């Protein structure tokens, strides 16, 4: 897996969506509403895509500012620093 996506952070977004969905489902059942699993699935998808986008934007910003040049060799490789993604200006 590409290190730019940082899979270790993905569990955080799942937990937030799960807790939010649990509260929404509880309130809907209490008030007589119906639960639509498609909204939950869409929320998971959008949050996943935002997480990936923000990780790549952070990686790109570090590459532009030169932060990656100061990293130690033992740190995880970054997509821009390892030249898997090319900066174009």
From TrEMBL:
This is 1,4-dihydroxy-2-naphthoate octaprenyltransferase. One of its GO terms (molecular function) is transferase activity. Keywords: Membrane, Transferase, Transmembrane, Transmembrane helix. The keyword Transmembrane applies. It comes from Chryseobacterium carnipullorum. The chain crosses the membrane at residues 35-53.
């Amino acid at each position: 897996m590409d290190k730019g996506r940082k899979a270790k952070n993905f569990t955080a977004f799942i937990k937030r969506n799960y807790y939010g969905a649990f509260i929404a489902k509880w309130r809907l059942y209490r008030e007589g509403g119906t639960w639509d699993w498609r909204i939950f699935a869409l929320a998971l998808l959008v949050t996943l895509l935002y997480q990936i986008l923000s990780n790549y934007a952070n990686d790109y910003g570090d590459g532009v500012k030169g932060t990656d040049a100061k990293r130690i060799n033992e740190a995880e490789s970054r997509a821009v620093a390892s030249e898997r993604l090319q900066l174009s200006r």
